[in-house]
Design goal:
Blueprint: H1 9-20, H2 24-43, H3 55-66, H4 82-85, H5 88-92, H6 112-129, H7 137-152, H8 158-177, H9 195-209, H10 214-224, H11 230-243, H12 248-255, H13 270-277, H14 282-299, H15 303-310, H16 315-332, H17 337-342, H18 350-370, H19 383-402
């Protein structure tokens, strides 16, 4: 190829990023192709091309173009296939401590294009449930109960459950954004199965409409949330904080209608939002970190890069953020959950690994609460998958006996 016709990945990337606003699908495919080419260059011998941009150049160009942190750049540069970088664990000091890993993050790898498509699908599905208007309480009850009816109809199916949960989250976000005096999560007509996800969405939408004002949020949640489910609403704050951070994911969320394209910045991110977080009690801080970790899994192209980012957080944020990342990872990749469970003993330090496995188990309990019977029909094959499914069944039984699920924590978490 001549110098005049050779493709320049930096130019291609910037052009594709601009095209995102016109077509998320085209950008996702172009971005995946670029990442695939970079992976190939790492694992296949090739002659260096004089003057050709490196993967660091690509990351730098993306950072300049997006005006946001590299960590939210959605699979540019370092966010390539996790199998390529597993060897870096030992060098980086993330060797196993305590429980012996059963594999590495390459066992959890999702093909690049599939990973991008699933993330976009998740955001689109949440957005599809949202209504950019006020929603009368009767309509809210009818719609959200209907989503659960569709998901629970026939044999319990985790992929149907995910769709219903995501649509319900989007719808509940609309309630928080466009609140009517009659809107309430305390409405006795709401099915118990929809209450956890309804509070999550309500929390996100409320935090956005109230521009993260702590006093107003506390007062609203005390008035409108069901007492046993209030914690789920606080978790939603963490999700919207991450979505509002400058970077690619904020642009994508705006393009897909999840937030406004001209949405303002969220709280000051310094010290993991230290000034903002200290206004909440420790348990609420845990829930906010969980919600933030949930969107970290969405805004990184693979689970390795998401978990590696989480290792940089303050120590007390690592376990809940990893729990949240695993919860979202299970939603995005519900079709691959048996394999994910079997290879979940990842070679990170014990608190992160325990949080990750607990998050996967909690996702199963959450699915089973929304679509009862899902765990009953699960037939695990691998040893670790069997262990985690049995753990989830015990937790689900306790949840039914209690009458409501705990807010993003297990009664008996992994250690």
């Amino acid at each position: 190829m001549t110098e005049t016709t050779q493709s320049n990945p930096v130019v291609d990337l910037v052009q594709s990023t601009g095209a995102l606003v016109k077509s998320v699908g085209r950008f996702s495919i172009g971005m995946s192709f670029l990442a695939a080419k970079q992976v190939a260059s790492l694992v296949m011998p090739a002659k260096p091309v004089p003057g050709a941009p490196s993967i660091a150049d690509v990351s730098s160009a993306a950072e300049r173009h997006l005006s946001g942190p590299v960590r939210t750049a959605f699979a540019v540069g370092t966010n390539v296939q996790s199998g390529v970088v597993d060897a870096a664990f030992g060098i980086a000091g993330f060797g196993p401590k305590g429980q012996k890993p059963q594999g590495n993050t390459s066992d959890l790898a999702i093909p690049i294009r599939a990973g991008a498509t699933r993330r976009v699908t998740g955001v689109r599905t949440v957005a599809s449930g949202a209504l950019e208007r006020q929603v009368p309480q009767d309509e809210f009850v009818m719609r959200i109960n209907g989503y659960q009816d569709e998901s629970a109809h026939g044999a319990a199916d985790r992929e149907k459950a995910v769709t219903g949960l995501w649509k319900s989250e989007g719808l509940s976000t609309s309630i928080g954004k466009h609140l009517l005096p009659e809107n309430s999560m305390r409405d006795g007509r709401l099915k118990k199965e929809v209450l956890p996800i309804a509070h999550v969405g309500f929390g996100s939408g409320s935090a956005e409409s109230l521009v993260f004002d702590v006093d107003k949020i506390d007062a609203l949640f005390a008035e409108r949330c069901a007492p046993d489910y209030r914690g789920f609403s606080y978790e939603g704050i963490g999700a919207i904080i991450r979505i509002y951070e400058r970077g690619f994911f904020k642009v994508m969320s705006g393009t897909l209608g999840l937030i406004k394209l001209d949405a303002p910045d969220g709280p000051n991110p310094e010290g993991f939002f230290a000034d903002y977080m200290r206004r909440f009690p420790p348990e609420t801080q845990r829930l906010i970190a969980h919600g933030y970790g949930r969107i970290v899994a969405f805004s990184n192209m693979n689970i390795y890069s998401a978990l590696t980012e989480i290792t940089t957080y303050p120590a007390e944020r690592i376990e809940p953020a990893a729990h949240g990342a695993a919860f979202a990872f299970a939603f995005m990749n519900s079709a691959d959950l048996p394999r994910i469970l079997e290879h979940s003993a990842i070679p990170f330090a014990a608190p992160l690994r325990a949080g990750f496995q607990s998050g996967l188990i909690y996702a199963l309990v959450f699915f089973d609460w929304y679509a009862p019977g899902l765990l009953d029909g699960w037939k695990p094959t691998g040893a670790l998958e069997t262990e985690l499914i049995e753990h989830a069944r015990r937790e689900a039984a306790s949840t039914r006996q209690r009458g409501y699920p705990l807010a993003f924590r297990l009664e008996n978490p992994r250690t």
